[in-house]
Design brief:
The protein is α/β, with parallel strands linked by helices and about 280 residues long. The N and C termini lie far apart (about 35 Å). It has seven helices and eleven strands. Strands 1, 2, 3, 6, 7, 8, 9, 10 and 11 form a nine-stranded mixed beta sheet that branches. The protein has a two-stranded antiparallel sheet with strand order 4-5. α3 packs parallel to α7. It has one domain: Alkaline Phosphatase, subunit A.
């Protein structure tokens, strides 16, 4: 018997699942309550379910992070396969995409980067393996455009589409909102949990610790699970003002997008308008 699976099941039973299968309720308009973070970083990993991470000895860093984060134990991807989830998280819509086709050209469709820029704020996407700033090709080595939604929108300038090598040494120089996408190995798509866990410790932990003392957040989520109908994933938020502990209640990528938009006073995008912000305190 594998002990981490027992632990994962035990953790899962602590969550009270509510609203499963119910039609989404329309949430209130953006609220002014709550702290506006100085920075938000969203890190997206691949193709692992919640129970493949919780209590898994191959994921010591993820479990350390869960211990100091708000952990959404009933979080879900919105689709299979990968690409629609990234588009949903970035724009509030899957943009009609149902597969991993490339290229996707969403034109001037509304998106988070466009909103932030219109509000005088900044956005940056950092993709490991992206061969050059502004690259809109489908793949290069371990980089895959299906995991880079901002490259699909004409309203996002090429300067916002950066390789991970451009990540600043000083977190204070990050954009207001930044997404970070590991390559196809380090995101656990082609490689195992231990590989992704080691990458997260090396590359996310310095920012996570900085964020806690600098009015900023780290959001970690997965695009989808390992292919099940339930599509249950890990989603967590850690940083300044976040109360650690498990959170029950079904959430998804639209709820994550709604949370970011609300904190910066942005109108909810697409289906994020029907999602409630994540409870963080």
């Amino acid at each position: 018997m594998v002990h981490w699976r027992r632990a994962a099941v035990l953790v899962a039973t602590l969550a009270v699942v509510s609203g499963c299968g119910a039609a989404p309720k329309r949430a209130p308009s953006p609220a002014a309550s709550g702290v506006r973070p100085g920075h938000v970083v969203v890190a997206v990993f691949e193709n692992k379910s919640y129970v493949q991470l919780a209590g898994n000895p191959d994921a010591p860093y993820f479990n350390e992070l869960m211990a100091r984060a708000a952990v959404f134990t009933d979080a879900h991807g919105v689709a299979h396969p990968s690409q629609p989830n990234y588009l949903a998280l970035f724009s509030g819509s899957t943009q009609g995409v149902t597969d991993d086709q490339c290229p996707v050209r969403a034109g001037a469709a509304a998106n988070l980067a466009q909103q932030l820029q219109a509000a005088g704020l900044t956005f940056g996407g950092y993709s490991e393996g992206l061969p050059s700033p502004g690259y809109r090709g489908c793949s290069s080595g371990r980089y895959a455009a299906k995991h880079n939604p901002w490259a699909d929108f004409d309203t996002v300038p090429g300067a916002a589409n950066q390789p991970y090598s451009a990540w600043p040494a000083d977190p204070a120089r990050l954009p207001t909102v930044a997404f970070v996408i590991p390559d196809l190995c380090n995101d656990m798509h082609d490689c195992g949990v231990a590989t992704g866990d080691a990458w997260a410790r090396a590359h996310l932990d310095p920012y996570a610790r900085w964020a806690a003392g600098h009015d900023s957040w780290l959001i970690v989520t997965f695009d989808e699970d390992d292919g099940s109908a339930g599509n249950r994933i890990l989603t967590l938020v850690t940083g300044a003002g976040i109360t650690p502990g498990p959170r029950s209640g079904r959430v998804d990528h639209y709820a994550v997008l709604r949370t970011i938009g609300d904190r910066y006073g942005l109108p909810p995008l697409g289906r994020a308008a029907g999602a409630s912000p994540l409870p963080l305190q």
